[in-house]
TrEMBL record:
Residue ranges constituting the Reverse transcriptase domain according to the UniProt record: 28-285
Signal peptide positions on this chain: none
Transmembrane segments: none
Annotated Pfam families: RVT_1
CDD domains: RT_nLTR_like
Protein name per Swiss-Prot or TrEMBL: Reverse transcriptase domain-containing protein
SUPFAM superfamilies for the chain: DNA/RNA polymerases
Length: 338
């Protein structure tokens, strides 16, 4: 049975008795390095990735783990300490914007746009590749993650033991019409919907930055999205070949670490001045034997990029959405007046 209390069940007239018991349980867990078994049972809820997708296809859903709120409170305490430790020891990937304080989609886009503008100021064009992982949270290997935590981050003793206990014997199940499915044990996975999951994913991907740096190519991570960009010049294929080699190395690293790139979702756009646009008309990249053609527009962390970086398409898109909502508000006005 799923025994996790909701915040409301645990607070209505019982906070004076239940509160100290939960606090003692959490202190005992952290001091012994053992996570209670019931804290590791996740109730899975399937949420559509986007509106309008075919509801009959399982791939169109994102599995979200609903964990007991007591577990999330404890995870929040641990996450705060891990973030402080990583920050204090400069262990975060400098170009990772996801799951960090004062780093957001806005700061990630600002950094990438700034680098593009610097390239354009030198009369160079810039090739930008956007990559996306498939079900990244669900394919993380626990043994590899524990190796990262010990050897890349430096955790040891009770701290490492607690994280090993947190990852070990995790289960998930589905509840439908009052019936509970069999609990499925997980060897791969950090729960999407947990507090620690995104932070552990960022730690899992720490070595990838060094792989890309070895090719002297600029990059930026946001959660499980990767952007690679490099200045290019007309009739010079060397940067393109370097980028293809880097993409192959990234793909190889992903495979070795049980992560899967959405190759068919990989997008390419060349930011170029109008007078050089024809020079790059037929340029494409190759990855895993597949050609990646240029896109007229790409959506980068919610912002539409175009080859001239003028953002006209993005402004039009935002305007359409705003007018759509304004029309809906206008239509509902009569209901409120009545």
């Amino acid at each position: 049975m799923y025994v996790g209390l909701s915040p409301f069940q645990g607070s209505q007239g019982t906070s004076s008795t239940v509160g100290p018991a939960i606090l003692s349980l959490m202190y005992l867990s952290l001091s012994t390095g053992i996570v209670p078994f019931n804290f590791k049972a996740a109730l899975i809820e399937l949420l559509p990735k986007k509106p309008g997708l075919d509801p009959a296809l399982v791939s169109n859903y994102r599995p979200i783990s609903n964990l007991p709120f007591q577990s999330k409170i404890q995870e929040r305490i641990v996450a705060k300490q891990i973030v402080a430790y990583l920050t204090r020891n400069n262990l975060f990937e400098p170009f990772q914007s996801g799951f960090r304080n004062f780093r957001s989609t806005e700061t990630a886009v600002t950094r990438v746009v700034n680098d593009i503008l610097l390239a354009l100021d030198t009369n160079a064009s810039l090739m930008l590749v956007l990559q996306d992982l498939s079900a990244a949270f669900n394919t993380i290997d626990h043994s590899i993650l524990l190796h990262r935590l010990e050897h890349y981050v430096g955790f040891e003793g009770t701290a490492l033991g607690w994280l090993e206990s947190y990852l070990t014997d995790r289960t998930q199940f589905v509840l439908s019409e009052g019936s509970e499915s069999k609990h499925c044990k997980l060897r791969f996975d950090v729960a999407q919907g947990s507090v620690l999951g995104p932070l552990l994913l960022a730690i899992y991907m720490l070595p990838l930055g060094d792989v890309i740096r070895s090719f002297v190519i600029s990059f930026h991570f946001y959660a499980d999205d990767t952007q690679l960009f490099i200045p290019v010049e007309p009739r010079n294929s060397a940067p393109i070949q370097k980028l293809e080699s880097c993409l192959a190395a990234v793909n190889s690293w992903m495979s070795q670490n049980f992560l899967q790139l959405n190759t068919w979702k990989t997008e390419l756009i060349i930011i170029v001045s109008k007078w050089d646009q024809r020079e790059f008309e037929n340029v494409s990249l190759w990855l895993d034997g597949l050609a990646i053609p240029q896109s007229a527009f790409v959506r980068n962390l919610g912002v539409l990029f175009d080859p001239q970086l003028c953002f006209d398409q993005h402004v039009r898109s935002i305007t359409r959405i705003a007018f759509f909502h304004l029309r809906n508000i206008a239509k509902s006005e009569q209901c409120y007046l009545q």
